[in-house]
Amino acid sequence: MQTEENKMGIMPVEKLLINMSLPIMVSMLVEALYNVVDSIFVAQISENALTAVSLVFPVQNLIIAIAVGTGVGVNAFLSRSLGEKNIEKANSVANNGILLGLLSYVLFLAFGLLFSRSYFTFQVDDMAIIEYGIPYLRIICIGSICRFIHIVFERLLLSTGKTFYTMIAQGAGAIVNIILDPIFIFGHFGIPAMGTAGAAIATVIGQITAATLVIIFNFRVNREINISARGFKPDLKIIKDIYSVGIPSIAMMAIISVTTYGMNSILNGFSYTAIAVFGIYFKLQSFIFMPVFGLNNGMVPIIAFNYGAGNKGRIIRIIRLGIIYAFCIMIFGLIVIQILPEKILALFNASEDMLSIGVPALRIISLSYIFAGISVVASAIFQAFGNALLSLLTAVSRQLLVLLPAAYILSFFENVNLIWLAFPIAEVISLALSIIFLRYIYDRKIATR
């Protein structure tokens, strides 16, 4: 009876999409806020400290990529199982997803303990940047177990439509991080100043808070699935199902780490300030992209559930609404960045050199937002239908086949401002591919229901 009454199958789609997505959008905006605040506080230490934290971003993104990719696979197949009223399979997907998250953490624990110094010395030779970066990276990796637990358990709540609880957990973790940042970074209330290490500790404590809450919420309110220690026994068929969607999603997000690492290497040929500007941009863009990612997280279980239930009309209406909402969000972000780049950079204690590089960088890169919204939503649509490979192909084309080569070629003109043009160029290509793949999904999956 519970699956028959699941709101993803009966609530009007306009209300449903807002109901499912808005709490996630709010919580992800709060998370974006504490990421930005983290960098704002670190920038007060020095530009070298900001550069060090920027260089850690590829590793942080890879942690999130594996956690979210696993969660996306769990989300899609758990929601589809509920739509098909297969409760036993839904429980197995949930329990195996948790197991995979815990096993993934071991990789980053080992990396943080063994390779933190090598990671920095391979990229830069400035000892100040290296010494700022090593403790930050090491603490983030050691504490990443909380990130894995939080994201996987959050996806279990999303799969059953309990988005309000994800907002509470993520919001609480972000608030804790924001409060603790200045205390641990600069030293207050008897706590010594710890610099970048303090920023990392504050981040981990925030993640502990969020992870604890999503675990509690799952056991107390998520009655549609049963999390049991007995279910932690690996089921290879379920794991294959999860990763059939999850691995392309992981690879798609991991490509961002590769791209960021590559861009940092290109920008290193100009100045460390250019790397810091690029790091600031990635923090800022989360304010625009996080709401769209929140929209995606709301769309995936809705589409998967209604695909499992055979509701073609609802699927089409959800896709149309998602594209419209995403486009509007991206245009709003474009306008804000075009108007206020100097004021935004001033938050990061920007020097004249940073402003001279950062203002044109923000204005040029943000032009890509005109095209990016549809592509981002299209990626979620592919994942919801179990065709995450299409998302991967789009991401590989955009990031590795267009963005990095274009940036590399433009770097030969010895003008750092030209490098930023690679971003709108890449998004135009991505949009064209997304439209082609959306047509394929419609013909093969939707039209036949």
Protein described:
- The mean pLDDT is 82.
- This protein has 17 helices and no strands.
- The two termini are 24 Å apart.
- It has helices at 7-10, 13-45, 47-83, 87-121, 127-142, 144-159, 163-187, 195-221, 236-268, 272-309, 312-339, 341-346, 352-365, 369-384, 388-411, 416-419, 422-446.
- The longest helix is centred in the middle third of the chain and has 38 residues, at 272-309.
- It is mostly helical and 449 residues long.
- The protein has one domain.
Structure described in brief:
By secondary structure, this protein is an all-alpha fold. The chain has helices spanning 7-10, 13-45, 47-83, 87-121, 127-142, 144-159, 163-187, 195-221, 236-268, 272-309, 312-339, 341-346, 352-365, 369-384, 388-411, 416-419, 422-446. It contains 17 helices and no strands.
Shape: globular
- How many structural domains? 1
**Overall SS class:** mainly alpha
CA gyration radius, whole angstroms: 21 Å
Q: Tell me the span between the first and last alpha carbons.
A: 24 Å
Task: Name the helicity range.
Answer: over 70%
Pick out the low-confidence regions: none
Find the count of extended strands (DSSP E, 2+ residues): 0
> Beta-strand percentage?
under 5%
Order of helices and strands: HHHHHHHHHHHHHHHHH
Largest sheet: none
Q: Let me know the average pLDDT.
A: 82
Q: What oligomeric state is this?
A: single chain
DSSP helical segment count: 17
What are the salient characteristics of this protein?
single chain, 449 residues, mainly alpha, globular
